[in-house]
UniProtKB/TrEMBL annotation:
EC numbers: 1.-.-.-
Source organism per UniProt: Sciurus carolinensis (Eastern gray squirrel)
Residues in the signal sequence: none
Subcellular location field: Endoplasmic reticulum membrane
Protein name, as recorded: Flavin-containing monooxygenase
Stored Pfam families: FMO-like (PF00743)
Gene3D superfamilies: FAD/NAD(P)-binding domain
Family: Belongs to the FMO family.
GO cellular component, one term: endoplasmic reticulum membrane
GO molecular function, one term: NADP binding
UniProt keyword annotation of Oxidoreductase present: yes
Top EC class of this enzyme: oxidoreductase
Cofactor(s) listed in the protein's UniProt record: FAD
Length: 127
């Protein structure tokens, strides 16, 4: 078997890449969502393809794709004037050339650890 192809990564600028042989180093019991267990037939320390399948099942079963918008630029995230009573945030985004303002009950800044973050910690001032 030629293993050189298994070890190559197809790198794309700005995208996460993972070696085809990677096995997660956390047990499935420790990494699963509390409301969605990992299938019993999955190995305890899963191959990365099983982790991806698990995440896709979770998104599909909870219908999260209706709430996710990919390829969207976030311009600002600010507390609303009534934040102390509402806890809401105003988020300005751009998708396909159109800017939009949305109000959300919560915001998460997720840059990941497998690629370079787009913003530094200084981009998130503490008020």
């Amino acid at each position: 078997m030629n293993t050189s192809n298994l070890l190559q990564e197809n790198l794309e600028e700005g995208r996460v890449s993972i070696c085809k042989l990677v096995i997660i180093n956390t047990s499935k019991e420790m990494m699963c969502f509390s409301d969605y267990t990992i299938p019993d037939h999955y190995l305890n320390f899963m191959h990365n393809s099983q982790v991806l399948k698990y995440f896709r099942m979770y998104v599909k079963d909870f219908n999260f794709l209706n709430y996710i918008q990919f390829k969207t630029t976030v311009y600002s995230v600010k507390k609303r004037p009534d934040f102390s009573s509402s806890g809401q945030w105003e988020v300005v985004t751009e998708y396909k050339g159109k800017k939009k303002v949305n109000v959300f009950d919560g915001v998460m800044a997720c840059t990941g650890h497998h690629t370079n973050a787009h913003l530094s910690l200084e981009s998130f001032p503490v008020e």
